[in-house]
Each structure stands twice: as C-alpha cells, then as structure tokens.
Amino acid sequence: MHERNAGAGRDNRSTKFHWLRHSPWLLFRILRHPRRGSQHAVESVRNALTALTLMGERGAMRLTDIADELGVARSTAHRLMVTMREAGFVIQPLGSRLYTLGPTFAGLTSAVVAHDDLIAAARPALAALRRATEETVHLVTRLGADVYFLDGIEGARTVRVGLKSGARLPVIASAAGLAMLAQMTPERIDRVVFLSRRVRSFDEGWLSDQIALARKAGYAVSFGLAYADVHEVAVAFRYDPGNHMAALTVAAPANRIDHQRARELGLILRQSASSLSTQLSRLAR
User: Fold this and answer.
1) Residues 6+ apart with CB under 8 A from 98
2) 12-106 and 113-284 have identical folds
3) How far apart are CA 3 and CA 190, in angstroms?
C-alpha cells in the first residue's frame, strides 16, 4: 500500500516547503545558517516570514495581495499558504478568501479561536448526536500531526467520558485522526506520517492497516489508543471548497463500545457528518 511506504511518492511541489511543516524554529535556523540549506529554502523562509509580518501589520489578506507583496506567482504563494495553514501559522476561515495569523504563530494552545464559524455551525449537529447516543461527542480538526478538539458536549449518563475541548492528541493516537487519514491522498498521508515520526514512534504497518479498515468501514475506531479505559468512534468529513477537514466523534467508557456498538455508532456518525458537510458547504458558497 502507498500508506505503508511513508517516504515515497511525495511530489516536488509539496517538498518545496517541507521544512516549514516540521518545526517553527526551522524558519529561523535556516536564516541564521544559510549554508545548511539551499538558497531556494532561504528564499522560501524569507517569503514565509514576510507574509506573516504583513498579516501581523495589516490583518487578513487575500492571496493575490500576498503574491504581489512577495513578488512571486500566485501558484507559489498558494502553495506557501497551504503549507503554513497545515502547520498552523495561518488560518483561512470557512468560506473566506482571506488568510490571517493562526494559532501556531500566535502561540495559542488550541485552534478554537480559529474555528469559531465551524463550531457555531456544528453545534446543533453535536447536540443531535449527543441525544441520539447519550455519549460524549466532539468536533475535531487537524493541525499538522495533531488533532484538536474544538468543541464537545458531555454525555448524559452518570459514568461518562469527560470533555476534551481545547485538548490535542497525535493524529495517529485518535479515532478522529485515523478517520481523517482515511480520507487523504497517499501523498498527504506521507506528510502527516513524516511529522508524526518526529514526535512519536509507531508501527507504520499497523497504521496502514488502520487506515484501510477505516476506509472500508466508513468510520474509524480507537479502542484505548489514547486512554486505556476509553473507546471512541469517528467519521471525518470535508466541508468547503478549500478542502478543509474535520471529524465528529463519540466516546464512551470502554465497556460500552464493542465492535457491534462501534458499527452502530459509525452509521449514526456518517449520517450526521454527511448532513453537516452539506450544510457547511452551502454556507461557504
């Protein structure tokens, strides 16, 4: 499978800015020690820092204006913005053509502020999902090699999983992360795996199998991946022309979600995610 070979298949357009995804500090290291990287990488770093500075001074900016200020082609500016968005340096609000500073640059610990529009639109869906399952439900998005729990509603039962809103987990250690990976291209999976290897060791064969299972089932499961006594089911969805991705999850104490219950919850989640994706796409037009 493509996913098993994490280092293969990455195209030149994505590797052009690969250093930007790995660590914010690489921006400054390359500028301080230009001999360690190519001249092209140095120019890319300068463009990234210039774009961030401009957004800090002017606020939200259009891609065309960013390209003009940097003196580069619009396609080059777009690749740079996509990379910085994936790393959390910039955000592009739902349905907007504007880019602004993101949580990584601002030093935020969660992406809640960056996704207020998504949270507001998804809140009714979360409430309906909680009523249907009586378990704790969350809205989750991805930032680099992590998933962020943007919002949630605690379950109705006495013994329940607590809210994780504002928390982050590795993509590879969460049902939401596995669900998102299952909807990605092999090249994008490679990028996330590359980032994940820098902070956590894992079996790439196991990950490949989990992605395949999630694709086949239409949902992903976590049987104690992050917390031994918590089982979780998730479905990912895309929600606007910018190809943003999020996930809905249901979490419960381990003894309440077995494989049969996971299938039932997966069906409920798929229906909720499909409706929410359609609703958000309409709002983005």
Assistant:
1) 60, 61, 62, 92
2) no
3) 7
What pTM, to 2 d.p., does this model score?
Answer: 0.63
What class does CATH assign to 113-284? alpha beta
The CATH code for residues 12-106 is: 1.10.10.10
Q: Return the HEC string of the chain.
A: CCCCCCCCCCCHHHHCCHHHHHCHHHHHHHHHCHHHCCHHHHHHHHHHHHHHHHHHHHCCEEHHHHHHHHCCCHHHHHHHHHHHHHHCCEECCCCCCEEEECHHHHCCCCCCHHHHHHHHHHHHHHHHHHHHHCCEEEEEEEECCEEEEEEEECCCCCCCCCCCCCCEEEHHHCHHHHHHHCCCCHHHHHHHHHHHHCCCCCCHHHHHHHHHHHHHHCCEEEECCCCCCEEEEEEEEECCCCCCEEEEEEEEEHHHCCHHHHHHHHHHHHHHHHHHHHHHHHHHC
Query: At 225, is the pLDDT very low, low, confident or very high (cuts 50, 70, 90)?
Result: very high
Provide the residue ranges of all domains of the chain, joining segments of one domain with +.
12-106, 113-284
Q: What is the pLDDT of residue 206?
A: 93
Contact criterion met (CB below 8 Å) for 210 and 223: no
Average pLDDT on 83-99 reads 80
